[in-house]
Amino acid sequence: QVQLVESGGGLVQAGGSLRLSCAASVSGSIFRLRTMGWYRQAPGKQRELVAYITNADSTVYTESVKGRFTISRDNAKNTVYLQMNSLEPEDTAVYYCNLKLSTVYDYWGQGTQVTVSS
User: With contact defined as beta carbons under 8 Å apart, do 43 and 55 qualify?
Assistant: First the structure.
């Protein structure tokens, strides 16, 4: 059973920074071959992609976080990170990490709350 455990959320003032972590309980051979993603869901809104990183360390970001957020991975620790700088109130959401092995085996963490005060 694959488990994803996020940590690092919290309350921060606008302009501040947070670093989210997501540890995956999966074999290293699977983790390093897979794309990992961070998503977020704000109250009353649909879950949206924030960023993802491929097994070749290529990265993609949603437009609103470009230049402020950085996704990275440590394959030795089966962990993916999301460094969030210059946070804005609009970044307030529950952040989830995702590992998709197939259309059937699509895993999500429990989420970590990020709240940015103005």
Answer: no
Task: Identify the DSSP state of 28.
Answer: H
Question: Which residue stretches of 1-118 are H helix?
Answer: 28-31
For 98, the 3-state DSSP assignment is strand
Beta sheet of 79-84, edge-to-edge order: 4-7, 18-24, 79-84, 69-74
* Pairing between β-strand 36-41 and β-strand 93-100 as defined by DSSP bridges: antiparallel
DSSP state of 87: -
Q: What is the pLDDT of residues 18-30, one digit of tens each?
A: 999 999 998 878 8
Q: In this structure, what DSSP letter does residue 29 have?
A: H
What dihedral do alpha carbons 53, 4, 29, 99 form, nearest 10°? -50
pLDDT digits (tens, 9 = 90+) for 37-95: 999 999 999 999 999 999 999 999 999 999 999 999 999 999 999 999 999 999 999 99
